[in-house]
């Protein structure tokens, strides 16, 4: 088994575990990002309050809306990303060694090369997995409409009755969302938000650059202190992953909000300020009607969710990679021992 495949599978496994742990936070965050109420006097709910509101009004299951396609997307994204990251990383390391032989550099992959490697891996990942995340965003932002008490008909208009009778019974599974996206924008509708998603490639690029830089420095310091022993614990990996994700999220969050707005169901009737024709239109309307604060809706929730998810992912991935390599080494040793002299 190649090192790239080991990292790909480990990344997928770590991503799934992190997703399961943090999914309710992700659902709430997506709703916060796509909230288009322009009334500034509206009282903003905190993360925990909003989670409780969803549970009370729509049930526990809505916190996990879109979980199945999200797990598929997470496994695919992390697997694709880590697989291609390792391939590009290996090529970068080989190039660095070749340059060292020619008297250029010290043979290590520099910060710029690490950034390029992460960016290329991210672009491949975005192009292949964006349709999955469009579906997930739709399912996370879909709000379950509860049956209204019609005992007092005087408080219910004819329009409200029609909306309730049409919307409330409809299912909203993966197949329904796929049909909805296709009816709304055709085949290319599944790549809505791909432009800001490609810009968001800088997020994992910054994340991995920060992570590997901190990891390299920690290993070097550990090696000097313990005479060649540069082992890093799972807790240290957890903290390094959290710090790296925190830095990357703070820089790129506004782009993530624009992406979520584009991928959520578009309002084609009523207030046209809620309808976005594209990335630039979304940015201009958000600045005009919501101000720059609109680009940071739900940021505290995102930081909590993404930092926790990234920390868990890194910790689990490193442990899975370490375990897989140990199993391969043991397998080779057993194979050698079993051969006749």
Automatic annotation (TrEMBL):
Domain of life, source organism: Eukaryota
Location of the protein in the cell: Membrane
GO biological process assignments: nucleotide transport; transmembrane transport
Topological relation to the membrane, as annotated: Multi-pass membrane protein
A Pfam match: Mito_carr
Keywords: Membrane, Repeat, Transmembrane, Transmembrane helix, Transport
Transmembrane segments: 109-136, 232-256
Cellular component GO terms, alphabetical: membrane
InterPro entries given in the database record: MCP_dom_sf, MCP_transmembrane, SLC25A32-like
Solcar repeat ranges per the UniProt record: 2-91, 109-217, 232-323
Assigned protein family: Belongs to the mitochondrial carrier (TC 2.A.29) family.
Protein name as it appears in the record: Peroxisomal nicotinamide adenine dinucleotide carrier
Organism name: Herrania umbratica
Gene: LOC110425108
């Amino acid at each position: 088994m190649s090192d790239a495949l080991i990292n790909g599978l480990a990344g997928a496994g770590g991503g799934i575990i992190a997703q399961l742990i943090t999914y309710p936070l992700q659902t709430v965050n997506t709703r916060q990002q796509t909230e288009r109420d322009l009334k500034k006097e509206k009282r903003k709910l905190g993360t925990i309050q909003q989670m409780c509101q969803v549970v009370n009004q729509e049930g526990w299951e809505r916190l996990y809306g879109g979980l199945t396609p999200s797990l598929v997307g997470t496994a695919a994204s992390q697997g694709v990303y880590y697989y291609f990251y390792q391939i590009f990383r290996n090529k970068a390391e080989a190039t660095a060694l070749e340059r060292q032989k020619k008297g250029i550099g010290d043979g290590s992959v520099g910060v710029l090369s690490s950034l390029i490697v992460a960016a290329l891996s991210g672009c491949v990942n975005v192009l292949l997995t964006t349709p999955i995340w469009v579906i997930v965003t739709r399912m996370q932002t879909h709000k379950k409409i509860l049956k209204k008490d019609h005992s007092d008909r005087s408080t219910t208009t004819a329009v409200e009755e029609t909306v309730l009778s049409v919307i409330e019974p409809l299912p909203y599974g993966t197949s329904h969302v796929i049909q909805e996206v296709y009816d709304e924008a055709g085949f290319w509708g599944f790549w809505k938000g791909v432009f800001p998603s490609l810009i968001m490639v800088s997020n994992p690029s910054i994340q991995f650059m920060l992570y590997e830089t901190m990891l390299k420095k920690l290993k070097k310091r550990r090696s000097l202190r313990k005479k060649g022993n540069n082992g890093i614990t799972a807790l240290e990996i957890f903290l390094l992953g959290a710090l790296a994700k925190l830095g990357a999220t703070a820089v790129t969050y506004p782009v993530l909000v624009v992406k979520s707005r584009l991928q959520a169901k578009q309002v084609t009737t009523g207030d046209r300020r809620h309808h976005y024709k594209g990335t630039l239109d979304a940015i201009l309307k958000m600045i005009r009607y919501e101000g720059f604060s609109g680009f940071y809706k739900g940021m505290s929730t995102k930081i909590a969710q993404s930092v926790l998810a990234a920390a868990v992912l890194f910790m689990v991935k490193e442990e899975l990679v370490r375990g897989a390599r140990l199993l391969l080494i043991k397998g080779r040793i057993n194979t050698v021992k079993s051969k006749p002299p």
